[in-house]
Design goal:
With 190 residues, the protein is of the alpha/beta class. 36% of the residues lie in helices and 22% in strands.
Length: 190
Amino acid sequence: MNYLIVGLGNIGAEYASTRHNMGFMILDAWAQASNVVFETSRYGSTAEISVKGRKFILLKPSTYMNLSGKAVRYWVNELKLPLENLLVISDDLNLPFGTLRMRKNGSAGGHNGLTNITEMLGTQEYARLRAGIGNDFSRGGQIDFVLGELTSGEKELMPQICDKAIEGIKAFAMLGPDRAMNIVNTKINK
């Protein structure tokens, strides 16, 4: 069984450790822990990880955040993947840093990457894993905040956040989204 796990982010070294790249960071951590390397593919970088008879295709779109839907639609069609086997990982301003929330479907919540994916797929019926980044910015400072570097305290929590997210992704495939939500919907504490 194949699963497409999409981590949202922006390509380029200048974005590598920004809050908006939580999806990329989680997939990078899983690839590194599994000793697999991302390869340049159509509309992004991909890596494959097999766990207990399930194949996870990790995708980091190269289309930039706000056009992520093009890459997701291409890979869903290429893999002939049912949408229930798609999981999109994004950052979320509405959740405190370190909070993870998995949902089977829902609105984009103002996230431009999720909005574009919904538009390109023509549905909100796909799972998403949101990684909270908080909203500690003044009025008008949202763009600088999401494209800002993680603080040293946030960087310290990233290994725990990534481990919990990876556990949730595996549970999504092995146990189903309802049980995965029970596992992953938590806040990582210092």
